[in-house]
Specification:
Mean pLDDT of chain A: 96
CATH class of chain B: Alpha Beta
CATH topology of chain A: Glutaconate Coenzyme A-transferase
Strand content of chain A: 25-35%
Radius of gyration of chain B: 18 Å
Oligomer: heterodimer
Helix content of chain B: 10-25%
Number of strands of chain A: 12
CATH class of chain A: Alpha Beta
Largest sheet of chain B: 10 strands, mixed
Number of domains of chain A: 1
Radius of gyration of chain A: 18 Å
CATH superfamily of chain A: Glutaconate Coenzyme A-transferase
Largest interface: A-B, 51 and 43 residues
Mean pLDDT of chain B: 95
Distance between the termini of chain B: 33 Å
Distance between the termini of chain A: 39 Å
Strand order of the largest sheet of chain B: 4-3-2-1-5-8-10-11-12-13
Low-confidence stretches of chain B: none
Structural class of chain A: alpha/beta
Strand content of chain B: 25-35%
CATH architecture of chain A: 3-Layer(aba) Sandwich
Number of strands of chain B: 13
CATH superfamily of chain B: Glutaconate Coenzyme A-transferase
Helix content of chain A: 10-25%
Low-confidence stretches of chain A: none
Shape of chain B: globular
Chain lengths: ~230, ~220
């Protein structure tokens, strides 16, 4: 019997190593798996590279992971939110490395990683600072740059519903990066609001098929309070 | 008075909301449109509901509707500016790779962005002005490079009177040669192979006066 459900966040985070590349879902705080991030802090892996769209709000979730000194480098598109206090301070003090990536390039680099595509050409960022050092090529009269796949050792995602096979659904705009990150990591860990019996999810509504998910932990926390 | 102040004294510049309303009037029914965060988002307020224009939000929403009533907020539903929104009847959700796939694949009819500067060759600079804060690009480069029709909504000059319509951008570029039209508080200007072409000016403004506050040469539409 396949059963990917684990009984605690601590169990879900077992084995994450220092120096890992960790993909963290969410757009702002929506769809950001805060219980798993707290579990990662507790678990203690250091020197992490985090890939996430933003850089944390206030002192919660991703911001707390940065503040507690677990992150060496962050790869993101928009390291700014309503309240980016923690990241701004680390960045000004030169205590964190930042790689800014256009949001669509970031998503596509992970999609490529999940789909076995090592690199792709895109017109996004051609002629800008973010194209510096990248291979440029003209195809049918238009310029493109080469972007490489972005693979994670670990992906932390937030789902709405899950079953023991790791099939996942999402809610509203909390879907965002979660499905694409789930495909792009060696170890994908999902926290979910609801656990349901195998067969209870409508196959037409499963957004992440269980093949992409390794561990599921039940975290029924209610609603997000900040965006 | 600087040149900008003199020019503005002779006419009635539009407010941000008036620019948004003016731009909204040029969006026909049936278009799929992405509005950048900040002032461009206000454009949606001026497209009447019966004119079916479908707004996309980069975080996986097609068919974005207006802000919810305070007692009907879905706390899982935000736009690119991280404000609570609603989903219109007929709307749909998708994940980020699909959302940016539709942007980068050229499926939108229009993207409206704010900008610090637009150059006469269509270059746009809208994501960084200095090294004081960490650079943050978001989806701007994907939208600018991927959407076949990019319009910019911005003030004609900076607070200190410098032209935002320039020969070449001084700030870091977002994309090269992509802007098709600019809506400012003073005029509507097309970006053509021959540079800036003025289509429309606010009442009381002359082309000479507009040229005085514009760094790059202006032509009058034929």
């Amino acid at each position: 019997m396949i059963n990917k459900i684990v009984q605690s966040v601590a169990e879900a985070m077992a084995g994450i190593r220092d120096g890992s590349v960790v993909l963290i879902g969410g757009f702002g705080s929506i769809g950001q798996p805060n219980a798993l991030i707290d579990g990662l802090i507790e678990q203690g892996a250091k020197d992490l590279t985090v890939v996430s769209n933003n850089s944390g709000v206030g002192h919660l979730g991703l911001a707390k992971l940065l503040e507690t000194g677990h992150v060496r480098k962050i790869v993101c598109s928009f390291p700014r939110t309503a309240d980016p206090v923690v990241f701004e301070k680390l960045w000004r003090e030169d205590r964190i490395e930042l790689e800014v990536v256009p949001q669509g390039t970031m998503a596509e680099r992970m999609r490529a990683a999940g789909a076995g595509i090592p690199a792709f050409y895109t017109p996004t960022a051609v002629g800008t600072k973010l194209a510096e050092g990248k291979e440029e090529r003209e195809i049918r009269g238009r310029k493109y740059i080469l972007e490489e796949a972005l693979h994670g050792d670990v992906a932390l995602v937030e789902a709405w519903q899950a079953d023991r096979w790791g099939n996942l659904t999402y809610i509203s705009s909390a879907r965002n990066f979660n499905p694409v990150m789930a495909t792009a990591a060696t170890l994908t860990i999902a926290q979910t609001q609801h656990i349901v019996d195998l067969g209870a999810l409508d196959p037409e509504k499963i957004a992440t098929p269980g093949i992409f998910v390794n561990r599921v932990v039940h975290v029924p926390y209610g609603e997000p309070t900040v965006t | 008075m600087n040149a900008a102040e003199q020019v503005l004294a002779g006419c009635k510049p539009m407010t941000r909301r008036e620019i948004a309303a003016r731009l909204a009037g040029d969006i026909p029914e049936g278009w799929y449109v992405n509005l950048g965060i900040g002032a461009p988002l206000q454009v949606a307020d001026y497209v009447p509901e019966q004119r079916e224009v479908v707004f996309q939000s980069e975080n996986g929403i097609l068919g974005m509707g207006p802000a919810p009533e305070p007692d009907k907020i879905n706390r899982w539903l935000i736009n690119a500016g991280k404000q609570y929104i609603t989903l219109r009847t007929g709307g749909s959700y998708m994940h980020h790779a699909d959302s940016f796939g539709l942007i980068r694949g050229g499926h939108l009819d229009l993207c409206v962005l704010g900008a610090f500067q637009v150059a006469e060759n269509g270059d746009i600079a809208n994501w960084a002005t200095s090294n004081d804060t960490a650079p943050a690009v978001g989806g701007a480069m994907d939208l600018a490079a991927g959407t076949p029709r990019l319009w910019v909504l911005m003030e004609h000059t900076t607070k200190t009177g410098e032209s935002r319509l320039v020969r070449r951008c001084g700030y870091p570029l977002t994309a090269i040669g992509v802007v098709k039209r600019i809506y400012t508080n003073l005029a509507v200007i097309d970006v053509t192979d021959d540079g800036f072409v003025v289509r429309e000016m606010v009442p009381g403004l002359t082309l000479d006066a507009l040229q005085r506050v514009t760094d790059a040469p202006l032509k009058k539409a034929a």
